[in-house]
Design brief:
The structure is a single chain. The chain folds into two domains: 121 residues, Rossmann fold, CATH 3.40.50; 65 residues, DNA polymerase, domain 1, CATH 1.10.150.240. With 200 residues, the protein is an alpha/beta fold. Helix 1 packs antiparallel against helix 5. The strands form two sheets. A five-stranded parallel sheet has the order 5-4-1-6-7. A two-stranded antiparallel sheet has the order 2-3. It is built from eleven helices and seven strands. The termini are close together.
């Protein structure tokens, strides 16, 4: 079947992400080593935050509580470090307006309100070249949970067989493929260009 809908991941595909920038900032603020901060990062709270189950304050507090006590991490410093994660747009964003001429183009991302409202919406314009954005914190689930793909398809009025999903994380790609969605495992812009040329 001919592809009608294309769903793009954001981090690692449309935006360059660097976790070390965040870790280094928090390390400078707290005098804790990067390794200590990485080892104590509250991954479970992060997942809850990304599906809209925690508020901004609750997530920042979870980070402070997870670090060795006592520590001097202030909420403002936590968020400054958090936003340093997002570096710049990748070359891939140039494809969006071109693809939008022939396809319905969407974003499908595990993300959080802070990054979208304080970084993506303020610093970048690529989201103006998509028809709609589907974020984990709005949908209440996150990749690779099958539910987020099914919700995005339903909201887009799309079927698995006429949809393409692009992500840099292989487990996310595998779930989409299992659901019958055509997929591209993103590695770099050139790889993506080559794969897109072969679209039906």
């Amino acid at each position: 079947m001919v592809i009608k809908h294309i769903f793009f991941d954001i981090g690692g595909v449309l935006l360059e992400i660097d976790h070390v920038r965040s870790l280094q900032y928090w390390s400078d603020c707290t005098d804790l080593s990067i390794d200590v901060i990485k080892d104590h990062f509250p991954y479970e709270a992060h997942e809850q935050y990304e599906i809209g189950k925690l508020t901004d304050h609750e997530f920042s507090q979870a980070m402070k509580d997870a670090l060795p006590q006592p520590n001097c991490l202030k909420e403002d410093d936590f968020w400054r470090g958090w936003n340093k994660l997002i570096v710049a747009e990748t070359e891939t964003v140039k494809l969006l307006p071109l693809l939008k001429q022939s396809y319905n183009v969407y974003l499908l991302s595990n993300t959080n309100p802070r990054h979208i409202k304080h970084e993506v919406d303020k610093r970048f314009s690529f989201q103006k070249n998509v028809d709609r954005a589907f974020y984990s914190f709005d949908l209440g689930c996150r990749k690779p949970d099958a539910a987020i793909y099914l919700k995005a398809l339903e909201l887009a009025g799309a079927k698995p067989e006429d949809s393409l999903f692009i992500d840099d994380v292989i487990i996310n790609v595998d779930t989409a493929r299992f659901l019958g969605i055509k997929t591209i495992h993103y590695k770099n812009p050139q790889n993506l260009y080559d794969e897109l040329r072969n679209l039906p």
